[in-house]
Amino acid sequence: MADTVQTRPLAAPTEVGLGREELLGMYRTMLLARALGQRMWLLARTGKTHFAVSGDGHEAVQVAAAQALDRTQDWCIPFYRDLAMMLHLGITARDVMLDDMARAEAPFGRGRQLPAHWSARRLRIVSGSSPVTTQLLHAAGVALASKLRGETAVTLTTCGDGATSEGDFHEALNFASVHRLPVVFVVENNGWAISVPRHKQMAVASIAERAAGYAMPGVTVDGTDLLESYKVIKEAVDRARAGEGPTLIDAQVVRLVPHSTNDDERRYRPAEELADAKARDPLPRYRAHLVAQRLLTEADDTELKQEVAQVVDDATDFAERSSYPDPSEIATHLYAGR
Ligand SMILES: Cc1ncc(C[n+]2csc(CCOP(=O)(O)OP(=O)(O)O)c2C)c(N)n1
Predict the structure, then answer these.
(1) Which residues pair with 183 in a beta bridge?
(2) CA nearest 68: which of 229, 295, 305?
(3) Which CATH architecture has domain 18-324?
C-alpha cells in the first residue's frame, strides 16, 4: 500500500532562510486553505454546489511550492487539489467562492468552469485541464517559450501519483529533459488514484525512480513537512533558473478525505491506512513546530483562526449574494465571437 515515510523533526527556519513573517504567512495560508476547502465540501454536501475536491493533507508542499517561486516572473500550472498553492500565490477566497458557486463574476470561467480549475493572468497561473496530466505538457510548452524568449522564468507544475502513469507524463518529462527546460514537476503523491492504490498503478518502488528514465534528478521528500519541501523545491527552482534543466519531485503527502464528494472511500480504504494518514496531517505538525520555535503563541493562533474564519464567511456570503450568469449568455466564452 502507501509507502511509509519516516517522520523527522521539521527543518529549522534558519536552515531554509525564511523569516518569521514568511513562516507565519505560510501557516495562515494553510489554515485558510483548510477552512475554505472544508466550507466548499459542506456546500457540496448540502446541495448548494454540485461538487468539491479537497486538498486536505496536501497543504504543506503546496505552500512550500508557492513560496519557492519568484512571483514577479515564474509560472504555475496547478492541478485540482492545489487550493493552498493558489491562495499563497495571491488568488483570493472571494474569487475561489465565486467560482465554486458558479457565479457570473467568477474569474476563472464566469460560472461555466468545473470548480478547482483556477487561473489568473496577473499571477501567471495557467488553468489546468480536466484530463489528468495534460498540465505537465502545457508546463513544458510554457517553459520552452520562456527559454526561446531568453527569459529567466521557471514553470512549476503539479500532479497526483496516478497521473504519473499517463502517457502525457512521459512525453512532458522526456521533452523537458531533452531541451533542458526550466520546469519543476512536483508530484503530490497521496498513494491513491481515487480507489486505486499506488502499487496497482506502477511497478516502480518510488515515483522519484521514474526520473532516471529522463536523465533528470528525482527527489523524494516528505510533502507533509513544509520546510523540507520548501528546501527541495527551492533547489529545483534555482537549478531550473540556472539553465540546468528540469527536476522531478516526489512529495509524499496524505489524502485526509475521500477523493471528492462523489466518492465513498469506506468501500475501499483500510481504516488503519486512513488513521496513519491522519497522524501525518501537515497542519498540526507545522503549528507545533512554530510553537516550539516560539514563533506562534496560543493567543496568536486563536486570533489567526478567527481571522481566517471571517475571511471564509465573507467569501461565502459575497458569492451567495452574487448573480448567476444570465441564461442568454450561455455560449459566451465557449465559442469564438465574430
Ligand atoms: C485522462 C483522465 N483519466 C481519468 C480521469 C478521471 N480522474 C480524475 S482524478 C483521477 C485520479 C487521479 O489520481 P492521482 O493522479 O493520484 O491524483 P489524486 O486525485 O489522488 O490527487 C481520475 C482517474 C481524468 N480526469 N482524466
Answers:
(1) 155
(2) 229
(3) 3-Layer(aba) Sandwich (3.40)
| Ligand 1 atom nearest residue 188's Cα | 21
pLDDT value of residue 2: 44
pLDDT of residue 6: 52
Look up 259 and say whether it is catalytic.
Answer: yes
In this predicted structure, what is the pLDDT of residue 109? 86
Tell me which residues of the chain have a pLDDT lower than 50: 1-4
CA distance 187 to 207: 8
Per-residue pLDDT of 216-228, as tens digits, reads 999 999 999 999 9
- Exactly one of 20, 45, 71, 268 is catalytic; name it: 268
Q: Could you confirm whether 268 is annotated as catalytic?
A: yes
Q: CA 255, CA 21: separation in Å to the nearest integer? A: 28
For residue 75, the CA-to-ligand 1 centroid distance in Å is 23
Burial class from Cβ neighbours inside 10 Å (0-12, 13-18, 19+) for residue 241 reads: middle
Sign of the alpha-carbon dihedral angle for 102, 106, 111, 113:
negative
- Residues linked to residue 248 through DSSP beta bridges, in sequence order: 185, 218
Active-site option among 34, 58, 124, 259 = 259
Whether 304 and 35 have beta carbons less than 8 Å apart is answered as no
Could you state, in order of their start, the residue ranges of all structural domains in the chain? 18-324
Rounded Cα gap, residues 75 and 142, in angstroms: 8
